[in-house]
Amino acid sequence: AMLRLRLLTWDVKDTLLRLRRPLGESYAAEAQAHGVQVQPEALSQAFREAYGAQSQRFPNYGRGQGLSSQQWWADLVKQTFRLAGVHEDRVLTLVAEKLYHDYCSARNWEVLPGASETLSQCCQRGFRMGVVSNFDNRLENILTQCNLRHHFDFILTSEAAGFAKPDRRIFEKALRLSGVPPEQVAHIGDDYTRDYRAARAVGMHGFLLQAAGQGEKLEVPPEHVLPTLSHLLARIEK
Questions:
Q1: Is 215 a residue whose pLDDT tops 60?
Q2: What share of the chain is helix, strand, coil (3-state, %, to 5)?
Q3: 42-92 tens-digit pLDDT
Q4: Most buried of 45, 145, 153, 185 (most Cβ within 10 A)?
Q5: What is the DSSP-derived secondary structure letter of residue 218?
Q6: How is 37-61 classified by DSSP, letter by letter?
């Protein structure tokens, strides 16, 4: 039976957009521009550690604890460099500020293969579309720079919502914004817990974007798995 969908909601990172190059490389290049040598691999490892600690201490960009997301990122970048052995505060402040703005543009983000075409086809079929993403408030600008913004009725970030996926309240907020009942909505994303399971927990449909061989262990019916984004419409219209 064909799904009677009216609205599609989309995750962004690694679903529609991805980083152009590994984060450690971008961080190392920025440090080098300020005269500081650090190995990209050391920065990647330091970032993972710092990001984990920062996310635990100040979840969702410190939204509930009085931090701005810009402050949250600045602190995270500085801590990343400190863990990698760089301690010049003046340089770290400059690097953190520059990186914050660089990650707001198409310089550091690229559209995943098939994403533009799939979004255009969904719009042509008459689906309404929105974004539900654990992102900070730079997202709308990033989507504009990457020429995807025009596809969407709304952009709901975890920073704006005050809740991050898999919290059901961010999905409930998206449903209220759209006025569409959950059984007429499908969410598309690459994360089993935050996207697929969380959307289904509020009664929405879910599609999980997954390269072959990633998810055999997960409890996802094959008709809900998208090997690429271009499989979506066939899945919906079956």
A1: no
A2: 55, 15, 35
A3: 999 999 999 999 999 999 999 999 999 999 999 999 999 999 999 999 999
A4: 185
A5: S
A6: ---HHHHHHHHHHHHHHHHHHSHHH
Task: Quote the tokens at residue 229.
Answer: 């984004």
CATH 3.40.50.1000 assigned to 7-16+112-234 = yes
Give the CATH architecture of domain 20-107.
Answer: Orthogonal Bundle (1.10)
User: What average pLDDT does range 5-11 have in this prediction?
Assistant: 98
Percent of the chain with pLDDT over 70: 96
Q: CA 169 to CA 140: how far, in whole Å?
A: 20
| Residue 1 in this model has a pLDDT that exceeds 80 | no
Question: Strands 205-209 and 17-19, how do they pair?
Answer: unpaired
**CA atoms within a 13 Å half-sphere pointing along the CA-CB vector of 65:** 12
* Helix ranges (DSSP H) in 34-138: 40-57, 59-62, 69-83, 89-102, 115-124
Phi and psi at 128, nearest 5°, equal -80, 150
Residue in the structure block whose two tokens are 């209220």: 176
**Whether residue 166 has a cis bond before it, omega within 30° of 0:** yes
Model-level pTM? 0.94
| Phi, psi angle pair for 93, to nearest 5° | -60, -45
> Domain ranges in the chain?
7-16+112-234, 20-107
Closest CA to 69 of 152, 177, 160, 189: 160
For the beta sheet containing 225-226, the strands, ordered from the edge strand earlier in sequence to the opposite edge, are 154-157, 128-133, 7-10, 185-189, 205-209, 225-226
DSSP at 22: -
- SS3 state of residue 9: strand
Three-state DSSP state, 221: coil
In the DSSP assignment, the letter for residue 112 is: P
